[in-house]
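Pipeline run #58 for the internal structure catalog. This entry was flagged by the ingest filter as a single-chain record with no existing model, so it goes straight to prediction. Upstream metadata was stripped on purpose; only the residue string is passed forward. Reviewer on rotation: M.T. Logging verbosity set to normal.
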Amino acid sequence: MNFPLLPFAVTERLTDLTPEYLKEQGIRLLMLDFDNTIVPYTTSDPTEEMASWLKNMTQSDIQLCVVSNSKKDRVKIFCEQWQIPCITHANKPFSRGIRQCLAKFNFPREACALVGDQIFTDTLGANGCGVRPILVKAIHNHNIWLKLRHVAEKPFILMARNRRICK
């Protein structure tokens, strides 16, 4: 059994994940955290690189679903614009939002991954639900709480350094 705070894989950016890599890993459903994974907390506008990645992924065989703890309408608006299903109020690391996504798509858990920037919510939640967690570096730790959280996560990031995805 894996240690619940260690991700399956680690990468710098969400855009490092390719449909080819995900297929090689047997992943058919990629659950996406929203804030600081797709866009910073401070905007809903993706960079050109992220917009290109989203377009490429939505045209691939990999199913996407945003699974966010956010209660803000900007997540739903973003997902409607990109035609990506979403689940808000997910309450990660608890299982409700992840289980809701699994039920919606009906893939076996081993064919699913959740990618996010936080070990204590995204990684822990994914491991607790039996899906593969992929950790990405936060886009922008814009306040002291996010910076402190990153310091607390650092030992687990170091323990997972051999799980890096090379682009």
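catalog note: The radius of gyration is 14 Å.
catalog note: The chain has a mean pLDDT of 91.
status: ready for reviewer M.T.
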